[in-house]
Amino acid sequence: MSLLVVGLSHRSAPVSVLERAALSVDAQVKLAQDTVAAEPAAEAAVLGTCNRIELYADVDKFHAGVAELSTLLAQHCGVGLEELTPYLYVHYEDRAVHHLFSVACGLDSMVVGEGQILGQIKDSLARAQELHTAGRLLNDLFQQALRVGKRAHSETGIDRAGQSLVTFGLEQLSVGEDVETWAQGRRALVIGAGSMSSLAAATLARAGVAEIVVANRTFERAERLAQILADAEGATARAVRMDAVSAELTRADVVVSCTGATGLVLTADAVAEALQDRTGAPVAEVADGGRTPAAEAPLPPTTVGTEENCPLDLAAVQGASGFSVLGEAAVAGLDAAALEQHAAWVAGGTVDRREQGTGRALKAVEDTRAEAGLIDALAQTAATIGRVPEHRKPEPVAEIPRPAPAVFLLDLAMPRDIDAAAHRLAGVRLVDIESLAEASADAPMAADVDQVRRIVSDEVAAFGAAQRAQHITPTVVALRTMAADVVAAEIARLDGRLPGLDTRQRGEIRQAVHRVVDKLLHAPTVRVKQLAAEPGGAGYADALRTLFDLDPETVAAVSRAVDNTDEKDRPA
Predict the structure, then answer these.
(1) SS3 breakdown of the chain: % helix, strand, coil, rounded to 5?
(2) Is residue 310 annotated as a catalytic residue, yes or no?
């Protein structure tokens, strides 16, 4: 097994990069096809969700595989390889299996424990099977990942640790208020009719919204979803064409959008016009999206001495509220050499004389010591990847009062459907993938997560053992085939030398010889399968081929026959 995965997700990359790297289903198909057409990959599958894009492959060389898969991923995403590389992660063999199983269980999701990822893994496998880019390894891997995910949800309370992205998004929209109470009597507009949009529509219907309007580029799909909502959920629902979205926006209280569009579906101007039509008054903008620095006054002097030898542009950065020359935001993007210079500057600094002998001075010293550990950790990161990762989370800011929202926007698409500038409009509350990522980073996890992690570890070990045992099966089959050929040849020779034997005697001799051969081979073949299933057991197949002088082509032919049988037995 030489399983390799190269990808990026909300854990490794900012949403702005994920948004640019998002692949449509057609682009995912082309990526899988191009991967198996190139060396050194024999199999390939692409897993794409709203917050991850991953390329799985069976490769014969690790370094060449990483280089090829990274290049292909960058080419199809339309992002330069040099720009994309700092955000890519690579997992190989057992670590790759562990990663996919964790993803399937919802441990790697933006909302821990969400179950939607299982459907996305199933879709990814179905596409790879249809394209014939998934062979035995990826078929086994993805099917086992689905089983592991289902086991985690059935045997633990991981569902209590998180919700679907839709539910989490609606909770963010309602700002702590019970979603059902918040949704009662509101009109909802759902843009898109895919799985995520359908889930959002069903969730809103159960929450008690007064009406749901579904808009989709394919009107028939919108009609079908509206009918399902009416029949299954008892909701008042109707379908409209996409060109009616602007008119529906003036009546909607809640808008959920999740389409496959590559451009914006709702611009900030469109949202502003809809609000103006509703209220009859121009819509004002709230400075900085409703967020403003905690204080406008200049910051007090730094407590680490003078600006001499500091690699930071202090004159430019100290005007920003909440900025700390010791914090992670200060050194984001610095290379290793500049970071070392900054660390030396901090270490040589002194407490500002105006604060000596005061409580503020003591706190400044404590802060310096506390952040020294952060600088050391960042230095290690910079030494590994060449620079400090960009700071994703914004500096703490103070909220200023803004008008109560007249319309609530939930954007679950990647790339985004709704212009982020809409958040600056008074009377609008916008929640998108980026804000959900920030909110979920602080969400508590249930104790069941530890149990799921144990399940994943056990399943990874079992999968590895099964794959290693499976690897030796063609060799064992080839050995038994060779033994059967030897027995057949000897029986034929005996028939020629002893023509007077009757049928019963020949049968007894044939059975006796077969029993001897079977007994001689039974213990070694059972034991070699057990040994091969253990870590490092791959060499036993080679040893068996060498000891019995098995023809490599015979072993390969058996392996191909097993693969063809597996292919026929797999579900369509």
Answers:
(1) 60, 10, 30
(2) no
